[in-house]
Structures are given as C-alpha cells and as structure tokens.
Amino acid sequence: MITGRNHHSVGFGVISEQSTGFPGYNSIIAKDKATIGRILLDNGYATSWFGKDHNTPAFEASAIGPFDQWPTGLGFEYFYGFVGGDANQWEPNLFRNTTQIYPFLGKPVGTWNLVTAMADDAIDWMNRLNQVDPSKPFFCYYVPGATHAPHHPTKEWVDKIHDLHLFDKGWNAVREQIFENQKRLGVIPANTQIEPWPTNVIKNWEDCTPQEQKLYIKQVEVFAAFEAYNDHEIGRVIQAVEDMGKLDNTLIIYINGDNGTSAEGGPLGTPNEVAFFNGVSVPVDVQMKWYDVWGTEATYNHMSAGWSWAFDTPFTWFKQNASRLGGIRQNMCVSWPGHIKDQGALREQFMHVIDVVPTLLEVSGIPAPETVDGIPQKPIEGTSFAYTFDAKNAKAPSKHTTQYFEMFGQWALYHNGWMLSTEVNRAPWEAFGAANPDPLNNQILQLYNLDQDFSQSQDLAGKYPDKVKELKKMFIAEGKKYQVFPMDASVAARIVAPRPNITAGRTEFVYTKPMIGLPQGDSPFLLDSSYTITAEIEVPEGGAEGMILTSGGRFAGYGFYLLKGKPVFLWNLIDLKRIKWEGPDALTPGKHTLEFDFKYDGLGVATLAFNNMSGLGRGGVGTLKVDGKEVARQTMEHTLPMILQWDESFDIGSDTLTGVNDEDYQPPFPLTAKLDKLTIKVDRPKLTPEDIKKLEAGMQQAADTK
Ligand SMILES: [Ca+2]
To answer: Which residues of the chain have pLDDT under 50?
Structure first.
C-alpha cells in the first residue's frame, strides 16, 4: 500500500512477528523503495500517519529504535498510533512519533477509545496545518485498528446496532441478503453464482444450539458496531476537510476491509484473540462468561468465522487465503469532487493495492524519484488507476494485467481475467499443523475466468490444462521477480522462529532501574524454555508492595510482584486460568533475594526445524524462593506455546496498560521496595543427537505418507 510495490518486494511476504531471514520475508522496507510519505514529503507535502503501524519490524519497535523503519523514519513527519498487528482500543500501546503516551490514564473506563482519539488527532493535525500554512498540500494515511480484532466499539454504538436486529436470522440468511442487495445495487454482475454454504467448514445456522446462536449474535453485533463507529469517526475526519473548504480538491481513497474478512476467531469466535494465536479455541459455554461485557475492556474479542464467510459474499474463504477472492478482494471508493465528474459510478477494472501509490503520483504530477538520499530507486510495481476517473474510460480494459498473490504458501496468479489458484488446504484457524514442504508443486491448482465468473466458482482447470501450465509458469516468473521464493507454508511455527533481534543469542539479562514499555519482540522470550528470575530488593520499614517484573497483560502474560508484602509469581494463561506461586509471609524490612525458577519439560522451539511442533507449550515445574528458601512449588501442565499479549510490554517496577490479574491489583501498581538488581537467565532446551534422529525420522515418515 505505502510503497507501490508488492509485499514480498518490500520484505513483507509475512507480518514482522513471523519474519524470517529471506529478503521477501525480513519485514524491512529497503531504502531503494521509498514510501509515498517520503516521496510526497520531498515534494513539499506535509505528511502524516494515524492508527496502525504494522511496518516497523517487531525487533526494532522498542524505545531505543532504530527508528528508520518507524513512520517518522519512512517519510511521515507525524505519527499518532500503535505499533503492531492490532491493539486494545481502550488502552493501546500508543505513540506520538516515537514516544509512548498514555492519554487514557485516569479516565473512567469506557470513556476513552482510540477510534475517536485518532480521529480527533487527525482533525487537530489538519486544522493546525491549515491555520499555519493553508497553502501547504497535505497527505494523511489513516489506518484505524477497526475492524481488525479486538472489536472495541463504544456502548452507544453497540446499543444502536443491537436495536436494528440485523443478524437475528443467522449467517446463512445474512449471506443471502447481502447477495441480493449486491445484485440490486448492481455492484456484482446479475449472473454471479453463489456457492452453497460450506458445511464442511462452518455449521449451518439452524444447526447451532440456542446458546451458540445467542453468543454469535452478540459477537457480530459488536463487530458491526465497531465498523459503524469507525465509519462515523472517519466521517468526522472527512467533514473536517470539508469545513476547511478543501474537499473539492482532496483526493480520498477509502478501502474498507482486512484483506478479506478475518476468520481468526475460528468457528466459535473468541473472547481473547491471544488464545487463537496460542492454538486455543474457547468453548461456547466458557465464552458466555463474557457475554455481557463483550467488546469492553474485559475482552480481546473476535467473532465466529461464520459471519466472516457471510461478509465475504459473493466470494469464498477469508483473510489469509491468498488464492481466493474472499481473502484478497475488497471494495474501494474514490472521491475527488472537483476532478472526478462521474460521481456515484462503478468501476470494475482489475486493481491491486500496489496501484494506489502510482495513482497518487500521477494525479499530483510527481514523478517516481530516481534516487532518494542518493540511493537509486527500484521501479514502482503498481499501475496507476487514474485513467478510470474519466467517464469515457468507464469500460476501458484494465491496465493492471498481471498480478501474483501469496501468503503462507497459498498462491494465485491473475492474468487478463484468468486466475490460477491453489485449492484452499487450510482454514485460517488451522495454523498449528506441519507445513507443506513444497507449496509451489505439492498443491491442487484451480483455474477461473473471472471475466465471466465474478465469484470464482467454476473451476476450469480440467478443461484448459495448457492455461494452467502457462499461468503457473507466469507465477514462477513473477515470484522470482518479487522475492517470493523460497516460499514458506508454515504459519504459527514462524511466530517462534529465531530472528535477528536485540535479545538474539543472549541468555542473561540484567536490569538495575525501573523501565516500562519494552515490546514483546525486543524483550527476553521465556516461552518453551527453562528460566530463572532473580530480584534483589530492599523492603522499607512498614513493608512493600508492587510490580517487580511483568510482561503481557490481562489476556496473557506473567507477573512477579509483592501483594500485601508477600511475593507472588503468576502466569496468566490466556485469561482462562491463572497459576500462582505465593510466599506465606510478608517480607520483613531489609534486603531480600526473590527467585522464581522454572524447569521446562520439553524440547523447545528447536523441533520446528523438523516441521514439528511437539517441543512447544509443554509443562514444567515452577519454584518460588525467598532468600534461598523454597516457599512455593507447583507444576504447570501446559505453558503458552507461542506468544504473550502482543500489545502489552515488558515492564520493570510498575505495570503499564492492563494487569495480569485484576483480582490482585490495578496498574500501574508501582513497586514500593527498592529494586537493586533483576536478573533473568534463560536456558533453552538443546536437542541431543538422539532427539535429532527421532525428529528426522518423523519428518521422513510424514513426507512418505503425503
Ligand atoms: Ca501490562
């Protein structure tokens, strides 16, 4: 979107949290592919970015930078938003430029929300600019967390949507209604086919129990409220442009979606998306515990994939399924009242998000730069769609004739109306299996003629085998051109793959000062390992309390703290279970050494190299010691295999955003003892030659049975 190049070309074949060392997947936007922010900035524009920044490598997202891959380093002079894939909208990990800010602190719960705050901030920025220098052209990249999970609308919008009863008839009926509406509005061809409900993936609505139906309606109403709320706030931002008298000459491109609709809630939805990314599906009766507070600060919620399927009508599948239109096709609206005379009209030319940047360059009369900072620039890969603004080109053939797609080893190639697609072999929630070792060849290929088959429903591969061969060859050529290879079909395994970061190769971490805000990707990774955390503290007269060390938060994480003077170590297992080690006595005044030691009983992430997840999420024994004496010991049957709550940080001496156990304390819960030294030692399991032999044999066996 922001470079006019394909995602692999700029290191984003996969999100940064899953990045690997290959150029197409390293999550680094190279300097020879400057962003639209940088190009416009160099041509006299004021540039800004609001909302989600998922382009800073997870391993460069800390307060010590480097900042060249932050919005302000990528050519956007001003940034207000969060860094990462998503964020708690009630208490986000929020930054102004590169400084973390906490504007919600001290405000009553439910009164501050990022969706409104970012609109306010964007309006402020535009007004400030307009008052100081009304002649200055501006560029605003506005990317809300909505409607990615967590769905966090205000209560006002939840009530408004609930009163409409839009979803009471269930997802089959909603899908049919959407399809009829699309035909009536003329936004899809009259002959579009709709495929039967995919009962092998998602149950028919009538087969859901009353309790399931009740929960799913709540989930989708909150999702819809989040959408409507965000839409309203974007309306305020656009109104501000109109109020400045600049609407006629402001080009607004509005793309609504999340690739396709996200199914990362799984078939049941979830009160906690962090559970999904640790491979846990929460049963419906357990989810009901959050029914009344769905969408509030108590949930990190997502909806059932049944709704996601309905919202991708007339297409099939979801976000993450890069070979299906349900995973790659979104609507787009363009407004430029002073220039586009054909208002309200429809355009059906094939386009891709990489076309946005060349379109902006064409209409602003700015050529793509040959060099930036002395670095020769690689060509823009998209194709301007400015020609479609003219009514006489309404039916002109698309100028964007060829486009590849790839994500997690599912791939497709579009060429002049034809589309070659891999058959979907994995729903987005099936992220934890062994990966296809040869995703280029080891797949069933399907062929579609999208000019006659809008919804990609008639597979013509058997009829035109030569076309299949031709398009596969084109896919390989495009893949080579844009750094797609080596293609990687692994999903969850890549979350815990080793990557170059601040902590790589380190096994001992020492801290002597309080510190907050270190992101997950830059902090010591304790999962799937043994570790020892030692805190040397001085307790004042009268005793002490507060947070020594925490990482994560309400939806998954750990905390090492003093509660009414007693030492506590606590693991919050995705808000479903909390395991607590607690000393029996309050600490006496004076110096103490507290230690939490965990012995992990598994082979660790090294098994991933053998396409095997068995080393992850295993149990172990935790021991809490005070001044060398054991005070609590218990076994954890399971540990988190993958990830803590990603929008929460690693904090020493207090706790930012949400806490790991609301029953014990409320953040910031500052430590009132003096922290002399905190040491973390991590002991990663090492494979023995015998382990390796077994894992190799397992991998061979899996390959043989394929
Ligand atoms: Ca926290």
So the answer is: none
Average pLDDT, rounded, for the chain:
96
Residue 355 DSSP SS3: helix
Distance in angstroms (rounded) separating the CA atoms of residues 355 and 545: 56
Tell me 300's DSSP state: B
Distance CA 80, CA 469 (A): 47
**From ligand 1's centre to the CA of 654, what distance in Å?**
9
Structural domains for the chain:
1-145+351-379 (3.40.720.10), 151-229+258-332 (no CATH), 502-690 (2.60.120.200)
Expressed in angstroms and rounded, the spacing between residue 561 Cα and the centre of ligand 1 is 12
pLDDT in tens, 166-204: 999 999 999 999 999 999 999 999 999 999 999 999 999
pLDDT of 571:
98
The full 3-state SS of 649-703, as one line of letters, equals CEEECCCCCCCCCCCCCCCCCCCCCEEEEEEEEEECCCCCHHHHHHHHHHHHHHH
Backbone angles phi, psi at 238, to 5 degrees: -70, -35
C-alpha of residue 646 to centroid of ligand 1, in Å: 10
Ligand 1 centroid distance, CA of 48 (Å): 28
Q: Tell me the per-residue pLDDT of 350-394, one tens digit each, with 9 for 90 and over.
A: 999 999 999 999 999 999 999 999 999 999 999 999 999 999 999
3-state secondary structure of 163: helix
Q: What separation in Å is there between the alpha carbon of 651 and the centre of ligand 1? A: 7
Return phi, psi of residue 81, to 5°: 170, -165
User: Coil, strand, or helix at residue 310?
Assistant: helix
What dihedral do alpha carbons 631, 637, 642, 645 form, nearest 10°? -50
Ligand 1 centroid to residue 678 C-alpha, Å: 18
**What's the pLDDT score for residue 705?**
67
Query: How far is C-alpha 90 from the geometric centre of its chain's CA atoms?
Result: 17
Please provide the distance, in angstroms rounded to a whole number, between the alpha carbons at the two ends of the chain: 38
Got the DSSP string for 69-120? TSGGGTT-SEEEEEESS---SSS--EEETTEEE-TTTTSPTTS--HHHHHHH
| Tokens, residue 698 | 């397992």
The number of CA neighbours under 13 Å toward the Cβ of 344 is 1
